Amino acid sequence: MFHKKSKEVKPDKNEPDFKTNSSRPKRTPSEIGVKGIVYLLTLIVVALLLIILVFVAVKSGKIFNKEGFFKFIFVDRWQPGPDNSWSADNTTGSYYGIGGIIASTLLMMVIALLFAVPLTLFSALFISEYMGKKTQKFVMGVIKLMAGIPSVVWGLFAIDQIGPMFMAMGAMTNGNLMTASFTLSFMALPTMLSLTYNALQNVPDAYRYASLGLGISKEETTFGIVRRSSTPKIVSAVIMGMARVIGETMAVILIAGNSAAGLNTHDGFNGFIFSSVKTLAGTIGLEILENAGSLHESALFAIGLILFILVIIINLVVLLVSNTDNIRKYFHNKKKVKVNPHRSAQIDVDVNNENKAFNDYELKTIVKASAANKTSKSVKSGIALFFMWTSTIIVLAFAAWIFGVVIIKGLMGLKHIEAFVTVKGQAGIFAALFTTILLIISTLIFAIPLALGTAIYLTEYANKKSFFTKLIRFMINLLASTPSIVFGIFGLSVFIIMFKLPMSIFASSLTMAIVVIPMLTSNFEDALSLVPNNIKEAGYGLGLSKVKVLFKITIPNAMNGLVTGVILGMAKIIGETAPVYLTLGTALRMPSEGFLASGATLTTEIYMLASEGGGGEATSIAFLFSLVTMILVFFLNWLSGKMTNKKETGSLKWYIKLKNWWSNLIHFDYAKWFKDGWNKFKNNCKIIRHKLSYKHLKEVHYENKKRKKIIKIIEEREERRSYED
């Protein structure tokens, strides 16, 4: 009945223990080494930002000790001179106050945004909501090409085309506030438009279908639902455009006029808007190589610190705006909602529907009255479509304008075919091209390991919710939006003056590596994060270590994205001017000393030729340089696009696509298309004429009056009923 309790058998100490080890397996030396390298590279990237910030702040200390921080910011008196001539009281002595320069920079930013923001919003809405997928792809491809145009090419174009346009309106010179503001608006527009377009595309389609299903018009859905749903991201896009305007250097130097007098308040409205002005970044670029002494140099570094502070504020605002929904949810959850448990008992439902509050005619009237007036809706829709159409046409027309001018004038510059070999007694385009290629190679050698290590840390090792990870991302965004002229003065002071390196490709590549690391890190992180988790889990299931999964699965599957990031980084290196101008030199010569050679890249030579002004041979050769540069940049952008869409293209060859496109172009029925379009236009005109006719407006007025009368009767009845109850 009762079983005897069996004796416990004590294990023999000499017998092996076959118990399964549930603890984590020991890491191999290779895993520890790889993890250590990844952490070290990440810390180097973080330290770079801190070193730059501290260095700029320390170099700014002398001018703040001399004048004080607030006097430096608010006093409008920028008079560089030797250190012994400084005087706060004597107006003939040197003094450094950037109040006027800050005012000019902010006014230029405001005017640029007045042009850019409406064009960005209306054109992005039209592209996202009204264009087909193929048309969207084409138009956004054009916008991407605009974003790839180097800033010095924008400056050259503005000097040649936009400046004379404003001179015809009353400007004294082609370099003035309006020329700079108008040009900067279109320089910032591609970035703003791309970010806004992406924000609109991320709005769920269910929002659109629900709105349209309720009878709301397409235009009201676009502005009231889609635009409102993506407002925080649109605001972030505008703020990023502000950062682009504030930080632009070389183009502004060419087109702003650079007068120390600042805004002209004595010659009326025209004199004011066509003032010759200086900006914060432009002042550094103009004077850092020819500073009058240690005080002057410290004042220029102080301007760099102000730019740093502005960038930090801009990034914090973007962070705050992008997290608006999370903040709102947090405070909403804090509120305690009181629920009445007897609420359902208080609701009186008439199941048999015997006592109707309204008859059928009254209900029909209420429904009609609650909807928007049809004529009003048509007018609003027409106005919205007009602005969207117009904005998109303006953006595409401006793109065609700048591309057309550069291509035509660049081809006309081929009459100076000798410029490929020699320009004004110096070397030619080939020398600048070789210098640019060596700069790209040297920069990527330094930048790729640091960027890839940081990206691996963020995707594979970092805790996504930890404060340190968020801090690293914030620092990377901060580095990405910092004006390149700040990196330029850092490279000039540290690598050339402090470490005694010559102005060379090597010194310039160290500086440019800091410039492109944020961009490469973001691109590499996106590529690594797109590798499906189930592939990695399969590798872990087969017993592979984290390092083997990283090198055998993650990186090979992300290779297309990594190569695309490198190509885009190459395009950025080609387009940069300010850091290269300060650390490489401007002499056009063959890089016979290799990486220790000084010289000029394609963009720095464009700047040197454009700064001569006056048109003629120099401008013609500058457009030839611009054409070569844009061909190179556009080729890299095209190549990155091919790498990105490699899986989508399948086995269809490019020449088959080109053949099909050409066949469709040849056999397209243009007459029928024009006839249908003309008939549609005539019908729309008839509809508009009918809706605006006196007879129709009189009928609408009578119907509205009748509805208001019935609604008033219903409201009075409800008031009496509620009073009796």
TrEMBL record:
Quote the Pfam families the UniProt record gives: BPD_transp_1
Per UniProt, subcellular location reads as: Cell membrane
Q: Name one GO cellular component term.
A: plasma membrane
**Annotated Gene Ontology MF terms?**
phosphate transmembrane transporter activity
Q: Please name the GO terms of the biological process aspect recorded for this protein, alphabetically.
A: phosphate ion transmembrane transport
Q: Where is this region: Disordered?
A: 1-27
What membrane topology is given? Multi-pass membrane protein
For this UniProt record, give its keywords in alphabetical order, as a comma-separated list: Cell membrane, Membrane, Phosphate transport, Transmembrane, Transmembrane helix, Transport
Ranges of biased composition (kind: Basic and acidic residues): 8-18
Entry-linked Gene3D superfamilies: MetI-like
Organism's domain of life? Bacteria
Q: What is its main location?
A: membrane
Pinpoint the ABC transmembrane type-1 domain residues: 102-318, 433-636
Give a yes or no for keyword Transmembrane in this entry: yes
Please list every transmembrane segment annotated in the UniProt record, as residue ranges: 36-58, 95-126, 138-157, 177-200, 234-256, 299-321, 383-408, 428-458, 478-499, 505-528, 549-574, 618-639
NCBIfam families for this protein: 3a0107s02c, phosphate_pstC
Provide the family line.
Belongs to the binding-protein-dependent transport system permease family. CysTW subfamily.
Question: Any idea what this protein is called?
Answer: Phosphate ABC transporter permease
